[in-house]
Amino acid sequence: MANNNAGFESAKGNISIEMDVIARIAGIIATGCYGVVGMAHRSKSDEFAALLKKDTLTKGIRVTCTPDKKLRLDIHVIVEYGVNINTVSNSVIQNVTYQLNHMTGLTVERVNVFVEGFRVQE
């Protein structure tokens, strides 16, 4: 997508939301889900995923907007060892979809969750 924002028209004007803002919101929601230790980022040269700090959450998320103004998200996470990955992934999908729809007014068409690794919580 050449455009770096999503938006819509309201009765009183246009609303435009940067993709980084949507990615940050999605990252905060995802890291708040049970079983998610944090966001992950895998560089092209590294075979291991790195756990991202709070200020770099958006590196683990890719947001695109379709021509009909629907959002698609790819979210890369690291989960807690021993949790049910399917349950955690479904929780992330449901929470991100609901909260982004509610907070932005935009429709979330698809959320893909990529589990990049696991960590033992202390």
SSE map:
Blueprint (H helix, E strand, L loop, with lengths): L4 E6 L2 E6 H13 L4 E6 L8 E2 L9 E5 L4 E11 L4 H20 L2 E13 L3
Parallel strand pairs: 6-7
Antiparallel strand pairs: 1-2, 3-4, 3-6, 5-6
Helix pairs in contact: 1-2
Written overview of the protein:
The protein is α+β, with helices and mostly antiparallel strands and 122 residues long. The chain is 27% helix and 40% strand. It contains two helices and seven strands. The chain has helices spanning 19-31, 85-104, and strands at residues 5-10, 13-18, 36-41, 50-51, 61-65, 70-80, 107-119. The strands form two sheets. Strands 3, 4, 5, 6 and 7 form a five-stranded mixed β-sheet that branches. Strand 1 (5-10) and strand 2 (13-18) form a beta hairpin. The chain starts with a strand and ends with a strand. The model has no long low-confidence stretch (mean pLDDT 84).
Structure keywords:
single chain, five-stranded mixed β-sheet, two-stranded antiparallel ribbon, 7 strands, elongated
